[in-house]
């Protein structure tokens, strides 16, 4: 019984799975809207000419205010929390979990590298694997040190290196600026429409290298996400989410502070940005101020969301609503990778792909995300009624533990 083994359904914490499922929807929504946006797979002129432009602008504001950076903040927080709980369970069994844990992270890193090279430019699995190693190395930190580290890095904005590049006029260094130009976008669109998978991989790899590596965004994302990992580990140490009903009052009080404060900060930042852009307001170091407000608003609003969902999960109606998301959260790896195929199908012309890059706006992209994730939830519920793990979750566990756990539920029952 002391041997390390995959977590069974009975050992899972439903509220954490529900939070992960909600965060995964937000990641899906932000990713597809961002990838369809100006400078990536469409030009500003193309988007302005779309017949849906009026509604697109409204949806863009909604996505930016309510989901942008908040979804990935919650997703990273939950990964940190999940990794910490795995370590905690292993230590409770008094076994040497470090080798198995490193193997688990190595498998995830391999998944992530393959994912970013062959499927999805903005993928985060490789980051989370690397940060898992960092979390393992810092697991002996005191709760106070973990909190200070988490708060400090949570307030770090991943855009800072890019702003540094722009401020010092380094945009054209090794083509940093040209990768976002209309010419570069048209090139990506042409390659996407061609359906030539090898060319698509090559062009997108160059985009990733310039946009992600040369700008310093990779290092910035490591710092940005590790702050959220550390906060997840810190919360995990206190057991608040594992026994959320016991701390219902605390979650409710935090929700009542963080939700309005986070929304107010977000709206203030957007209003200030609009005033500066229009020339109605002139202030010293506007980018610094806007970045600071955004960095504070994001974790505050994300914390408000998390607390609101936890509070709802401890009520009858809220539990029925949000437990549906738990099915998606239990298959987070499979669903996250599956979303990459949706991006590819919509934007590229490989096989039956639609090659709609530059032809759809935010409203259509958001609709695809909503409908697509609703289908993922239905499929996840159907799958988990028959199988213990999602397909990629099962593969991950098998490679980690060097044995294949029973996949079908009836197979597990027959062996007991």
Describe the structure.
With 416 residues, the protein is mostly helical. It has one domain. The protein contains 18 helices and no strands. The mean pLDDT is 89.
Task: Label this structure with key terms.
mainly alpha, single chain, 72% helix, 416 residues
The share of residues in helices is: over 70%
Determine the structural class based on helices, strands and strand pairing. mainly alpha
Distance between the termini: 15 Å
Outline: globular
Strand count, sense and closure of the main sheet? none
Total number of distinct structural domains = 1
Radius of gyration: 22 Å
Would you list the SSEs in sequence order as H and E? Answer: HHHHHHHHHHHHHHHHHH
Uncertain runs: none
* Count of helical stretches: 18
Q: Report mean pLDDT, rounded to a whole number.
A: 89
């Amino acid at each position: 019984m002391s041997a390390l083994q995959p977590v069974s359904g009975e050992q899972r914490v439903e509220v954490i799975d529900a939070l992960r499922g909600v965060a995964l929807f937000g990641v899906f929504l932000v990713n597809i809207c961002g990838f369809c946006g100006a400078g990536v797979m469409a030009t500003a002129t193309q988007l302005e000419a779309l017949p849906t432009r009026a509604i697109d602008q409204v949806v863009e504001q909604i996505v930016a205010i309510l989901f942008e950076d908040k979804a990935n903040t919650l997703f990273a927080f939950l990964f940190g929390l999940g990794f910490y709980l795995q370590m905690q369970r292993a230590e409770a069994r008094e076994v040497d979990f470090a080798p198995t844990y490193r193997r688990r992270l190595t498998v995830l890193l391999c998944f992530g590298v393959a994912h970013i090279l062959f499927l999805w430019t903005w993928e985060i699995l490789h980051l989370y694997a690397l940060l898992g190693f960092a979390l393992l190395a810092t697991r002996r930190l005191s709760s106070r040190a973990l909190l200070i580290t988490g708060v400090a890095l949570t307030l770090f904005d991943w855009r800072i290196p890019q702003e540094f590049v722009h401020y010092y006029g380094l945009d054209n260094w090794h083509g940093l600026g040209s990768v976002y130009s209309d010419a570069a976008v048209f090139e990506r669109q042409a390659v996407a429409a061609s359906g030539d998978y090898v060319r698509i991989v090559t062009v997108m790899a160059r985009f990733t290298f310039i946009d992600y590596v040369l700008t310093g965004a990779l290092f910035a994302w490591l710092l940005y996400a590790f702050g959220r990992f550390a906060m997840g580990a810190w919360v995990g140490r206190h057991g608040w989410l594992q026994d959320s009903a016991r701390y219902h009052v605390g979650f409710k009080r935090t929700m009542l502070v963080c939700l309005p404060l986070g929304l107010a900060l977000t709206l203030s930042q957007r209003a200030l940005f609009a005033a500066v852009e229009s020339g109605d307001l002139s202030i010293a170091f506007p980018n610094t101020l806007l970045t600071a407000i955004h960095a504070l608003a994001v974790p505050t609003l994300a914390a408000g969301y998390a607390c609101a969902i936890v509070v709802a999960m401890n009520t009858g109606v809220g539990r029925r609503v949000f437990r549906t998301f738990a099915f998606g959260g239990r298959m987070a790896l499979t669903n996250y990778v599956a979303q990459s195929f949706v991006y590819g199908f919509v934007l590229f012309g490989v096989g039956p792909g639609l090659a709609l890059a530059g032809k759809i706006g935010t409203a259509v992209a958001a609709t695809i995300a909503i409908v697509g994730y609703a289908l993922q939830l239905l499929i996840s519920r159907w799958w988990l009624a028959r199988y213990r793990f999602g397909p990629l979750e099962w593969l991950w566990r098998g490679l980690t533990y060097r044995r294949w756990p029973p996949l079908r539920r009836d197979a597990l029952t027959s062996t007991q």
